[in-house]
TrEMBL record:
The keyword DNA-binding applies. The modification 4-aspartylphosphate is found at D52. It comes from Desulfobacca acetoxidans (strain ATCC 700848 / DSM 11109 / ASRB2). GO terms for biological process: phosphorelay signal transduction system. Keywords: DNA-binding, Phosphoprotein, Transcription, Transcription regulation, Two-component regulatory system. This is Response regulator receiver protein. SUPFAM superfamilies: CheY-like. Residues 3-115 form the Response regulatory domain.
Amino acid sequence: MKRILVADDEMSIRLLYSEELREEGYEVLTAANGREALEIVEKEPLNLIILDIKMPEMSGIEVLRQIKEKHPNLPVLLSSAYSEYKQDFGTWASEEYLVKSSDLEDLKTAVRKHLKD
């Protein structure tokens, strides 16, 4: 079973993404902030990460940079309510940039694409 980490400071988003992705047949771990996400990345084997950009303590862009330094082949999908971050050079290391929406079809399509399901 493919393992996905969902890192978002909003509990409602973590719950929604977890539920939807579990229904798709994935095992889902969650993190409430960037530091927690990095701890999980170091301890758990993962196949993909969905990472919020605006989080307290450490931005998703900083977390992305640290993940890619140690795990360059681990796919990371950035998820944000703000489309303007797409122009930030720091986001370009991610495999996809998704704007949060109540319709999760784009998210699920991106996950399938990067896990080659």
